[in-house]
Amino acid sequence: MDQLEAIRMFVRVVDSGSFSVVARESGIGQPAVSKQIAALEARLGAQLLRRTSRSLSVTEAGQDFYESAVRLVDDLEAAVSRVGRGQTAPSGLVRVTVAPVFGRVHILPRLGEFFARFPDIVVEIVVTDRAVDLVQEGVDVAIHNGPLTESTLVVRKIAATPVVTVATPELLERHGEPRSPGDLDGRECITFVSGGAARPWRFKGKSGEIVHQPKGRLRTNDAEQIRAAVLAGLGLAHAPGWLFSREIASGDVRRILRKYERAPLSISAVYPGGRRLATKARVFVDFLAEVFAADPTLDLAT
Description:
Largest sheet: 5 strands, mixed
Strand order of the largest sheet: 4-3-5-15-6
Number of helices: 10
Radius of gyration: 24 Å
């Protein structure tokens, strides 16, 4: 048995909460992972994990060993990096979930720079709008827009975006620019639909929240279609600023009703609490925070 590899595998099993996830990452069968962990337990003379057909948990001895094993693996990776490259050079697979349009517009164009810095990291992007069980599905990091209610997750803010109301300059010249949410009545609005219901537009007023029910001939549940429809001059939209950040910066669309905008939404990197964030995932999150902070077209909150 390669004891070091077994220790690495044990740490990853605890981190992911799944033998199958580790098997997939390692390119081996799940029985081989179980065999490695069983051999490690036999060598230590202690049970590290409790396994049933439906659950996996860490024993008291396993938790104690895990904490030492994490330090061992991290120290070894750091030492290898210093000798091999003179700088941090983490490796392996990072699985990231992200909403479709945000990933395409703001993450994919930046991956070339990330791979140049970290050539030994593989990024697997899982595109979804649904809430994902990070541990169960073997996801290292989720990029999330807006507030979160799950208290067991670690949330790191990496950017911020306002919810903006936008239209093309040509549309505003033809029909006039709304000066208050009340001026939106009777205007052609591109409506986002969720669960079959139109999502209301919410604004900040002097006496509290102002809610506008948008009306228009185009409804969609896809952010990319909202963006395309606005650029085609089909109506006004109310959406996270990142969706139109480059067009706002270029002047292709105009941001209106600014004094009625609510507090900005956070864009966050989210990962399971109670477990260490692997170095490969941490450098990915650090990278996104760095490049987003340096991009004035993304953070429109000021």
